[in-house]
C-alpha cells in the first residue's frame, strides 16, 4: 500500500507508440494530464510551446518520442502528420520517469520539459 492519492487520475488519454513501421495505440482511463500553452521568453510573439505533465499509476510502456492525445484519439493515424503542431490535443513525450515507493513501482510521470515536474 502506498500513501499516494490517485483520485485526480481520472482522465482519459491515448498513448501512441511507433516501433519501425508499427504504430500501437493504447487508451488509458486512469491518467492525470495537465497541459498548457506558453510563449517562450526568447520567442515572445513568434511561437507557442505546448507543455504537459502526465501521471499514470501502475505499469505502462511509455518512452520518449511517444505521443499523448488528450481523450480518446483516432484509431488510424499517419505518424508524419500526427504531430503536436497540427493536432491541438496532442503532446510528444520528452522524458519518462518511473516513481517508486518503498522499492515498489507506483506510477510513471512524463512530460516534454523537465521543469514541468
Descriptive account of the structure:
The chain has 117 residues and is mostly beta strands. The chain has one domain (11-116). It contains no helices and 7 strands. The protein has strands at residues 11-19, 22-38, 49-57, 67-70, 90-92, 95-101, 104-111. It has a 7-stranded antiparallel β-sheet with strand order 5-4-1-2-3-7-6, with no helix packed on it. Strand 6 and strand 7 form a beta hairpin. It is globular and about 40 Å long. It starts with 10 loop residues before the first strand and ends in a 6-residue tail after the last strand.
Which helices and strands occur, and which strands form pairs?
Elements lengths: L10 E9 L2 E17 L10 E9 L9 E4 L19 E3 L2 E7 L2 E8 L6
Antiparallel strand pairs: 1-2, 1-4, 2-3, 3-7, 4-5, 6-7
Concise overview:
With 117 residues, this protein is an all-beta fold. The protein has no helices and seven strands. It has one domain.
Q: What is the 3D shape?
A: globular
> Largest sheet at a glance?
7 strands, antiparallel
Uncertain parts: none
Radius of gyration: 15 Å
Number of strands: 7
Average pLDDT reading: 87
Oligomeric category:
single chain
The helix fraction, in percent, is: under 10%
N→C terminal distance: 23 Å
What percent of residues are in strands? over 45%
Which structural class should the secondary elements be placed in?
mainly beta
**Number of structural domains:** 1
Task: Tally the helices.
Answer: 0
Order of helices and strands: EEEEEEE
Give, in spatial order, the strands making up the sheet with the most strands: 5-4-1-2-3-7-6
Amino acid at each position: 500500500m502506498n500513501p499516494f492519492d490517485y483520485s485526480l487520475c481520472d482522465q482519459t488519454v491515448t498513448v501512441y507508440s511507433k516501433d519501425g513501421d508499427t504504430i500501437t495505440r493504447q487508451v488509458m482511463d486512469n491518467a492525470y494530464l495537465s497541459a498548457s500553452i506558453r510563449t517562450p521568453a526568447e520567442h515572445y510573439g513568434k511561437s507557442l510551446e505546448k507543455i504537459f505533465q502526465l501521471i499514470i499509476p501502475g505499469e505502462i510502456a511509455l518512452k520518449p518520442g511517444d505521443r499523448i492525445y488528450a481523450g480518446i484519439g483516432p484509431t488510424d493515424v499517419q505518424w508524419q502528420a500526427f504531430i503536436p503542431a497540427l493536432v491541438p490535443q496532442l503532446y510528444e513525450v520528452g522524458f519518462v520517469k518511473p516513481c517508486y515507493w518503498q522499492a515498489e513501482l507506483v506510477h510513471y510521470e512524463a512530460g516534454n520539459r523537465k521543469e514541468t515536474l
